[in-house]
Amino acid sequence: MSLKVLNPNAEVLNKSHALHMNINAAKGLQDVLKTNLGPKGTIKMLVGGAGDIKLTKDGNTLLKEMQIQSPTAIMIARTAVAQDDTSGDGTTSTVIFIGELMKQSERYIDEGMHPRVLVDGFEIAKRATLQFLEKFKTPVVMGDDPDKEILKMVARTALRTKLYEALADQLTDIVVNSVLCIRKSEEPIDLFMVEIMHMRHKFDVDTRLVEGLVLDHGSRHPDMKRRAENCYILTCNVSLEYEKSEINAGFFYSNAEQREAMVAAERRSVDERVQKIIDLKNKVCAGNDNNFVIINQKGIDPPSLDLLARAGIIALRRAKRRNMERLVLACGGEAVNSVDDLTPECLGWAGLVYEHVLGEEKYTFVENVKNPHSCTILIKGPNDHTIAQIKDAVRDGLRAVKNTIEDEAVVLGAGAFEVAARQYLVNEVKKTVQGRAQLGVEAFADALLAVPKILAENSGLDTQDVIIELTGEHDKGNVVGLNLHTGEPIDPQMEGIFDNYSVKRQIINSGPVIASQLLLVDEVIRAGRNMRKPN
Amino acid sequence: MVGFSMQPYGIQAMLKEGHRHLSGLDEAVLKNIDACKQLSTITRTSLGPNGMNKMVINHLDKLFVTNDAATIVNELEVQHPAAKILVLAGKAQQEEIGDGANLTVSFAGELLQNAEELIRMGLHPSEIIIGYTKAINKAIEILEDLVEEGSESMNVRDKDDVISRMRSAVASKQFGQEDILCPLIAEACIQVCPKNPGNFNVDNVRVAKLLGGGLHDSVVVRGMVLKSDAVGTIKRMENAKVAVFVGGVDTTATETKGTVLIHNAEQLENYAKTEEAKVEEIIKAVADSGAKVIVSGAAVGEMALHFCERYKLMVLKISSKFELRRFCRTTGAVALLKLSQPNPDDLGYVDSVSVEEIGGARVTIVKNEQGGNSVSTVVLRGSTDSILDDLERAVDDGVNTYRAMCRDSRIVPGAAATEIELARRLKEFSFKETGLDQYAIAKFAESFEMIPKTLAENAGLNAIEIISSLYAEHASGNAKVGIHLEDGVCRDVSTMHIWDLHITKFFALKYAADAACTVLRVDQIIMAKPAGGPKRDAPAGMDED
């Protein structure tokens, strides 16, 4: 071997060995993830190095948490994670699709076909499928007043693949409402404006949407009110604590009076700032029994807290930066960076501010706000792994709704698209292709069927029966999906099963690319400094 | 490392070394169930008033002798991931209600054990989950039905009412002593119950453990018991006003470093004098404001102490911030940051502050009879630390039960009467179902039998006999018949006065069913290589809490 001459320590896999390694890795990864797919998929339990538990059905989480070592598997996993980054869903499908493409290719390669020909076929099929997707998608008009029903259907479809049914249905409304809440026309949706907060409390079904904000800390002074109605909210980023000067300063005094004077002087500038806030409070709250709440990004030291408490002001310190942004969106007003020119216009408004204590943790709820553009999804659950599971699902649900609004289109789900695309490829595209690339198209078409097949398998149905039934219906011109409870064909439109257009597009786009790359590898070389690690 | 050229097929090859991967029914589901079963057999023998104590020694070599399931499972440091889910359910119950953790863990274990039988029969876990979910929903419905009539409204300030509801919770921890403990706990709780009972704060009932004496010597103090001595020589003060200073009683200091600048000897002499004059001025001001007791949150300076003595001020030091806050609540004082003359409004009031010697330890007893809903303390006496710890847990459970009843005072029959009734009605329900779920529902119903069975077994009775006679009674319509553990017969609970809170049962059953379903839902476990770190058998540091 020529390489051995160059570096006697290098390891080389060539030709069919390399190919088979890639194919095996892809199939292996597919095997791991395939039980996750769909609403009937099962849950995996991940145990971390520290013994922490994570329960998940989400392909993306699984890929991230599993420490994969095989280079091929890493490549596939990265594609899937990229899938999640761009569209927020469809990781499991991507892995399955790639695995299936490799599996189909294996058959042809074993019969002596050159991978290059297959790859050409994939390319043609990919382009055709994308065109077909454009025709197949169901356009949705979003405008100023989006159709809530369709958004709910999409969210439900996404959530049901991550959580059990009852919980998914409950979260559907929460997710859709929260996205609609933060949506401003003419502006891209920033999902970060939906705060996701969790509390270890009660049950998972107690998860709710708070129109307003929930902060995960409380006021630090025992005499401040725990609950206040009709509140002015001052959002600010002003330090209300004594700060040491940058240079190394010291005081010299020769008697106790002088020292007292210095103690007083030291605090004066901080006290002045506090006084300005108190003045504003007295101005806006004079003659009514409204309350005043300060939420400060910087610190407030105990003497200042004391002054504020005496003035009847609720003060929260060290709020998260992101929350400052959200606060302004939720309550109105503006975030101020200095107390010099405070006006009542800077103030926001909330109908109710209260503190909730759970064991050691404090939470502050800012609720009943006017016209909010930011909201909080408050996740509850009895333990951390439940909360983590819901959190992942909520994030995916939010993305699904956002995608729908941005795509202005949805795709029929429950495997309907895959079957339809496969029939289109086999019946129409294949005939227009010249030569051996036809086989590539065929392999691609068969690989598309992986998704409905695995859906059926996970539901304990007979895969062959299901596929034959589905393709039969499609040949008759009916667009049908799979009913996971009975194994009968159903109309996804009637059942409200819709997938994201962008998710499907991304899968069709990235799957064949990575599969082609893997197929075209003919040598795997491991050489380099680290290869001689002790065993 | 696996040979590069010999990549085996499958997931094992793709993961880093040290990973373990379990999947499928035999490897994952049944193993999980087995682990959970093991855990629940441990807790089960501690269930109920006749439950046995466990001796647990944790990694810090601390000894626990208890039958409180929450403590046991906490200190066991369960490693198995599935069993951990049960532990978490128990903890959630402990946090939510503060009682019933044993019921949660044991019942979840029983549910899983029965699920195993179903799996061996050939049912798929997902079918069992559907059945269990249906069953728990039905069970909750039935539980609502079993609520004792007229118990929705109770007077949370009526001692007898409170005791009757608290009794079974305390009895399950300290059987035979509930008649001594319950009145104490009830009294302490009622004293601090605010106007709106929903706002009852568990933190307001304190426990002070003092070694020596016996349980009979335990008392309730309306106020606080501080486990420290007074700083000065004045050890007793009555009907006194109190000033609280967070920042310590000493000379003031600037944040920036200060240096005393002295030019000549005269100044040196004068400096000490001005200091003294300053401190005296302040202490005098405090004394003039009417305060007779000074409480400091930080160090008390020698010089300040001297002047306090001179002005006949009693000085206490409370270094814990939370303790200080409670003290403020007890006395109604406003904590001042700096040592200065307090406003009359900021002063608190105590009936008496006195240092007493109890069992060799000096404690400061702060009493405030008129304080209303402030703080009360249960002073527990016992011969050993572990007995005191166990008594404390019983008191905690009792106080938590009080909080729970403030929120929802509905009660259901105790002494396993509720469980048998649930089992009976759920069985009837299962006959009406047509699908495969009926088997799961029937097993769910059967799981309830575990509770009377365990109660009877722990009391040394014949479980089968008891259960069959319970069923017989319930079938004839006596839904309130439970086990009388001392006599070993079945009797109506209303004659025995054993009631459980509905809310405790509700959460326990729900958490248990949730945990069982979660364990059943898992079909694959991927375990990372345990992270390195300090070895468990080596002392892990000072983080004992």
TrEMBL record, chain A:
<dbReference type="InterPro" id="IPR027410">
    <property type="entry name" value="TCP-1-like_intermed_sf"/>
</dbReference>
<comment type="subunit">
    <text>Heterooligomeric complex of about 850 to 900 kDa that forms two stacked rings, 12 to 16 nm in diameter.</text>
</comment>
<dbReference type="InterPro" id="IPR027409">
    <property type="entry name" value="GroEL-like_apical_dom_sf"/>
</dbReference>
<keyword id="KW-0547">Nucleotide-binding</keyword>
<comment type="similarity">
    <text>Belongs to the TCP-1 chaperonin family.</text>
</comment>
<comment type="function">
    <text>Molecular chaperone; assists the folding of proteins upon ATP hydrolysis. Known to play a role, in vitro, in the folding of actin and tubulin.</text>
</comment>
<keyword id="KW-0963">Cytoplasm</keyword>
<protein>
    <submittedName>
        <fullName>T-complex protein 1 subunit zeta 1</fullName>
    </submittedName>
</protein>
<dbReference type="InterPro" id="IPR002423">
    <property type="entry name" value="Cpn60/GroEL/TCP-1"/>
</dbReference>
<keyword id="KW-0143">Chaperone</keyword>
<dbReference type="InterPro" id="IPR017998">
    <property type="entry name" value="Chaperone_TCP-1"/>
</dbReference>
<dbReference type="GO" id="GO:0140662">
    <property type="term" value="F:ATP-dependent protein folding chaperone"/>
</dbReference>
<dbReference type="Pfam" id="PF00118">
    <property type="entry name" value="Cpn60_TCP1"/>
</dbReference>
<dbReference type="InterPro" id="IPR012722">
    <property type="entry name" value="Chap_CCT_zeta"/>
</dbReference>
<dbReference type="InterPro" id="IPR027413">
    <property type="entry name" value="GROEL-like_equatorial_sf"/>
</dbReference>
<dbReference type="InterPro" id="IPR002194">
    <property type="entry name" value="Chaperonin_TCP-1_CS"/>
</dbReference>
<dbReference type="InterPro" id="IPR053374">
    <property type="entry name" value="TCP-1_chaperonin"/>
</dbReference>
<dbReference type="GO" id="GO:0005524">
    <property type="term" value="F:ATP binding"/>
</dbReference>
<dbReference type="GO" id="GO:0005737">
    <property type="term" value="C:cytoplasm"/>
</dbReference>
<dbReference type="GO" id="GO:0051082">
    <property type="term" value="F:unfolded protein binding"/>
</dbReference>
<dbReference type="GO" id="GO:0016887">
    <property type="term" value="F:ATP hydrolysis activity"/>
</dbReference>
<keyword id="KW-0067">ATP-binding</keyword>
TrEMBL record, chain B:
<dbReference type="InterPro" id="IPR027413">
    <property type="entry name" value="GROEL-like_equatorial_sf"/>
</dbReference>
<dbReference type="InterPro" id="IPR027410">
    <property type="entry name" value="TCP-1-like_intermed_sf"/>
</dbReference>
<dbReference type="InterPro" id="IPR002194">
    <property type="entry name" value="Chaperonin_TCP-1_CS"/>
</dbReference>
<dbReference type="InterPro" id="IPR027409">
    <property type="entry name" value="GroEL-like_apical_dom_sf"/>
</dbReference>
<dbReference type="GO" id="GO:0051082">
    <property type="term" value="F:unfolded protein binding"/>
</dbReference>
<comment type="similarity">
    <text>Belongs to the TCP-1 chaperonin family.</text>
</comment>
<keyword id="KW-0547">Nucleotide-binding</keyword>
<dbReference type="Pfam" id="PF00118">
    <property type="entry name" value="Cpn60_TCP1"/>
</dbReference>
<keyword id="KW-0067">ATP-binding</keyword>
<protein>
    <recommendedName>
        <fullName>CCT-theta</fullName>
    </recommendedName>
</protein>
<keyword id="KW-0963">Cytoplasm</keyword>
<keyword id="KW-0143">Chaperone</keyword>
<dbReference type="InterPro" id="IPR002423">
    <property type="entry name" value="Cpn60/GroEL/TCP-1"/>
</dbReference>
<dbReference type="GO" id="GO:0005737">
    <property type="term" value="C:cytoplasm"/>
</dbReference>
<dbReference type="GO" id="GO:0140662">
    <property type="term" value="F:ATP-dependent protein folding chaperone"/>
</dbReference>
<dbReference type="InterPro" id="IPR017998">
    <property type="entry name" value="Chaperone_TCP-1"/>
</dbReference>
<dbReference type="InterPro" id="IPR012721">
    <property type="entry name" value="Chap_CCT_theta"/>
</dbReference>
<dbReference type="GO" id="GO:0016887">
    <property type="term" value="F:ATP hydrolysis activity"/>
</dbReference>
<dbReference type="GO" id="GO:0005524">
    <property type="term" value="F:ATP binding"/>
</dbReference>
